[in-house]
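Design request, tokens follow.
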């Protein structure tokens, strides 16, 4: 039977039993299937007692949610990205937003390099070549080396740097563009800074590692693809909506660029009617950059830790709108 005075954590993410126990020590758990609107899925009596929400990117967290959860102190997102959350509205409502940075960098970087290998060395094409019997008629077309090629990172945050390290290990020339040049990357010889246009025009691989926000939405489009070499590959493991997908499809169809590796699309899950599905020069992944057993465990552990810290009045490790913490800390006392 639920205790009608106990504070609640609304949980809309897959939390393993041991971590659920960590939450239950502080809060009553109210579970909601991922992707449902909390305002509609949770009864008012529970919403009135909710001080925490643990959710995935599939849960939209808009202004209306803060009105519906008047006691809310923290939204702990089970993701490093937080484009599902209206952070300015959370800040206005005095709600702390937490995320899971750091623990997924290696996994996303591995997938990025995996896609570069698939594109450059034609791994997926060659698999089709063998299965279709084409090999019985003659050898497969030659692929291209990664060594000596220019790998261009758009965005040089934690994940970008991890990708740069891996690309260097493949003897690639690593370049990057970022709002702020990364002095340490330059000093250590990890990567050299290029202006944005030069990054698109000089790279053999362009890999996107920027967050989605008002300034980056559809920020890569026809102009950027027209700058790229016809032999170059485009890769996105960040967010689909940073790309103008129609312009990308045009660039791929017309041979303006050689191919693409996409872990993210504008609309996910990708509809099988999407033009991307029929393009032979695209490798598609179902948004799995962080989807390994180890990484997802580390992410959910950090998301739960953030939530439990707020519930017990301690500063969480990963805050998006840190300025709200003093307000939340006061409420928690
Ligand atoms: C995955 O896309 C994440 O933001 O964690």
């Amino acid at each position: 039977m639920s205790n009608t005075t106990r504070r609640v954590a609304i949980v809309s993410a897959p939390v393993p039993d041991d971590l659920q126990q960590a939450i239950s020590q502080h809060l009553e758990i109210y579970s909601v299937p991922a992707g449902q609107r909390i305002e509609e899925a949770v009864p008012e009596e529970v919403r009135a007692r909710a001080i925490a929400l643990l959710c995935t990117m599939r849960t939209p967290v808009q202004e209306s949610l803060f009105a519906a959860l008047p006691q809310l102190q923290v939204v702990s997102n089970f993701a490093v990205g937080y484009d599902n959350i209206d952070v300015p509205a959370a800040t206005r409502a005095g709600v702390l937003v937490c995320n899971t940075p750091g623990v997924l960098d290696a996994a996303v970087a591995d997938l990025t390099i995996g896609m570069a290998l698939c594109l450059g060395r034609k791994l997926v094409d060659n698999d089709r070549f063998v299965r279709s019997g084409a090999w019985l008629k003659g050898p497969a077309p030659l692929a291209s080396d990664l060594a000596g090629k220019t790998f261009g990172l758009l965005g040089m945050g934690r994940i970008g740097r991890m990708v740069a390290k891996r690309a260097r290990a493949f003897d690639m020339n690593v370049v990057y563009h970022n709002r702020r040049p990364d002095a340490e990357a330059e000093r250590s010889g990890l990567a050299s800074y290029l202006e944005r246009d030069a990054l698109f025009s000089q790279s053999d691989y362009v890999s996107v590692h920027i967050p989605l926000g008002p300034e980056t939405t559809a920020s890569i489009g026809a102009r950027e693809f027209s700058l790229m070499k016809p032999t170059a590959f485009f890769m996105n493991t960040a967010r689909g909506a940073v790309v103008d997908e129609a312009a990308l499809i045009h660039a791929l169809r017309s041979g303006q660029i050689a191919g693409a590796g996409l872990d993210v699309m504008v609309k996910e899950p990708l509809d099988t009617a999407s033009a991307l599905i029929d393009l032979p020069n695209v490798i598609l992944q179902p948004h799995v950059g962080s989807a390994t057993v180890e990484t997802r465990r580390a992410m959910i552990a950090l998301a739960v830790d953030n939530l439990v810290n707020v519930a017990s009045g301690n500063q969480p490790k990963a805050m998006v709108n840190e300025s709200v913490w003093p307000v939340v800390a006061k409420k928690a006392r």
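Comment from the thread starter after seeing the answer: thanks! Residues 79-81, 104, 289-290 surround glyoxylic acid (CB under 6 Å).
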